[in-house]
Amino acid sequence: MTERLPISTEHCIVERDGHVVIVTMNRPEARNALSSSMLVGLADAWTYISDTPEVRVAILTGAEGTFCAGADLKAMGQQPSDPRVQERMGQIPNFHWKGLLREGQPTKPLICAIEGYAVAGGTELLVGTDLRVVAEGATLGLYEAKRGLFPMGGSAIRLPRQIGYANAMDILLTARSVTPQEALAMGLINKIVPDGQALAAARELADQIAACGPLAVQGILRTYRETQHLSEEDALKISDEIGWPVIGSEDAKEGSRAFKEKRPPVYHGK
């Protein structure tokens, strides 16, 4: 049963259904452009996902057929009407960067489910996620250079590392729109689905991940993040430090038992 969590804000709905958290940017009248209320909700959602053992995977999406049209500088400069959000703005260090996934990414896999516009900050959010499901009619792009701005969410660094220099510079320097088909060919996204099906397809992926051993999944994600800029020799040392405890865990024993007994495993993250 889906439960709406109290960390939700006016512009960010956070719901949990079993092992899966669904985070919905909820400002459709402005194409879900970023606001302080939304960024606080996102930042609190990432913390909740990381800190809650029962949560194994999360999905980020947008309300009413749009993902996110980027920053709304006017709205981000206004004081939210909700006193709790005002308080959280002062309590969360760099809440805007954390909400935008520039820092403090969740320790569990994060899938984005994109419909409609995912441009500027919307694509920056995409680049901060781990798996990307995109509707065939969606529009991607980092428009900042076209407007004399800079992609402060980290895409100037992350994008070349994810899809290679030439493809990244094509997107960043031309500031043009990118189709889902181009994004798939570049390796920027995982899957294209019919319009209206992105969230359902993302949930299928989430359920597949949630069925795996949570220690194994989190260990794989952590290993990549901690070793991506190291030599293979140094990276393997960290991989061993993370991997051997997983191999010796109760979950690993349960996985072997379930395989022998021809049944689905029941993991507890221990």
TrEMBL record:
Keyword Transmembrane: no
CDD domains: crotonase-like
Chain intervals with Basic and acidic residues compositional bias: 251-264
Entry's EC annotation: 4.2.1.17
A Pfam match: ECH_1
Keyword annotations: Lyase
Residue ranges, annotated region (Disordered): 251-270
Record's keyword annotation contains Cell wall biogenesis/degradation: no
Gene3D superfamilies assigned to the protein according to its UniProt record, in alphabetical order: 2-enoyl-CoA Hydratase, Chain A, domain 1, Lyase 2-enoyl-coa Hydratase, Chain A, domain 2
Entry-linked InterPro entries: ClpP/crotonase-like_dom_sf, Enoyl-CoA_hydra/iso, Enoyl-CoA_hydra_C
GO molecular function: enoyl-CoA hydratase activity
Parts forming coiled coils: none
Similarity field: Belongs to the enoyl-CoA hydratase/isomerase family.
PANTHER family (UniProt xref): ENOYL-COA HYDRATASE (PTHR43802), IP11341P-RELATED (PTHR43802:SF1)
The protein, known as: Enoyl-CoA hydratase
Lineage, highest ranks first: Bacteria, Bacillati, Actinomycetota, Actinomycetes, Streptosporangiales
